[in-house]
Amino acid sequence: FTLAAECVSPANVCSSWGDPFRPLPGCKEYVQCERGAIKFFNTCMDGTLFDVYVQACNWDYDTFCDIETCAPSMKPTLHPTTGPPTAFPSAAPSVSPSSSPTPEPSFGPTYNFFYSMEANTMKWAFQDTVLVAYNANGIKFPSTRYTYDGMITAVEEMASAGIQSDGRDFRFYVGNEESNLQYGRTNLAAFLAMAMTESILYDTCDELNEAQVAGKYAISNSCGQHGRSYQDEVCTNPAEAIMSCDVDVNMVVVSSSTSINQGGRPPPPLSCRPKADWSDYAGYWDSRTGQASTNPYANTLGRIDTEGCCFWGRGVLLTRGVCNIGRLNYYLGKRAHDERGEGRFPTIDFCKDPEATCASDSSTETMRWITGLFDWIYRVQSYEADSWSYMKALRKFVDNGFVDDDDERYPFIDTVSSVFVRDCHDIKCSNLQVTKKDARRFNFYKVMEIMKMTDKPTRKPTQNPTAFNEPTPAPSKPKIEIKPPPPVWSQPPPIPGVTLTGNLPSTTDNISPASTNPSPTSDINPVVVNLTPPAPSTNNEEPQQSDVPFEGLIVLNDNAACSCSITGVAWSLSIAIAIACIVLN
Description:
By secondary structure, this protein is an alpha+beta fold. The protein contains 11 helices and 24 strands.
């Protein structure tokens, strides 16, 4: 079922028509609805979650449940904001309407890029291959959070209108002329490769707890995973220092996304909260037993609490860290609106409510895509450091036939992955590891294949274009010629269904070659045969067979030869074997 509201709480879970049993956020609890009200609450046993398809508790690794948590409401405004009263309309328009017709829409590169993306075959391929997730059993299902129409809408907005904020223009690159739209498609493929690896394959808006430490999941992974500390990742560029979010140690946030593809008993969603006292530890989750412990247990950087650890990844690219999330607020969010009257999402304070991307009244698929696209434009598409530039590398990769040079120091998609994960391109530029690098590369070429840019690139293209020759005419119907073996009889024995024509010798002394169809070899004198079926039986007898070996050389028009030997078979099978011989050659 689908609720009218995008987020679910006990206050609205029964407010719309649907199934009688409905899950609450986290899918551990569910309710029975009757006449628009909750009749009673239920809780699934350990190791199970409520499955919306089977309408009952099911094993957690085999459950589908997509319920988002409503974000806490903001404090109400003390006084309603009122503007000047609306003036009465004047009797006549102050400006005469223009008589010129509205100009026709542009048919430039942006139009061409999206026109090619609107083909049904393209849409079906994306829906079947790219915008899919997998459950714990490896069963594929369409992503519920990331759809093709949602992707196209967001990419088109970011490519055409873009984001104009603080004197800067952020647009997603789709190629600047019709002849190089492949640049734009490659840019989209690289973006989607990161998005698939981060969120789409898991059908999640929030980062999941996935880093194990000694076989257990530290609850403090919300502070950072894979050697990262999100609340310490401030903007290091002096011009951007003011953009980082301030860390509020009193903030309480719980992720609205749950794992659907982690086997066993997956850990609970990421969360953050202040410490009650010095002995208040975050603990860990043991997926083998499905139980949590409050004993001190550190993540990879030694954190044993979750105080101020509210800046895990969110959106299609799982934008994470106080700097990256702060940029969203500075250019797209409430800060952009309050300081400059700008902002794509003017009511969302991404710093004070980082979960707003995934769970708020304004949280939509468009927000999930656009925040990720902005993050990509800012950090990857515009990246240029030392001797490496993303845009130059992209053009070189496309111009080179979608392959890297054999001696390329910075392979394109692997270097892009490094920039995306570590904010730098060189191998030794950071102590962080490029996580899931092989998956990112695999997903990149998968998207490229869908967009018909390349099948499986393995070599550079030739310097000169290949000339297109005239099409090869279809081969004519092959003629069958048979050279019998050296005869040992005075007269050839009868062969059912085969009428021999031509110069057939009666003895070995008077062999003469066939007068038509030159022999393919100098020592073969072919005899043309006419294969005709035997007369049908009139007394229901079994088809006649011959025990005499039928041997010869089948010669095709292109001088290909096929030798065959047919013994003791019916006429129809003889013909089938001869045809098979021709096809195989």
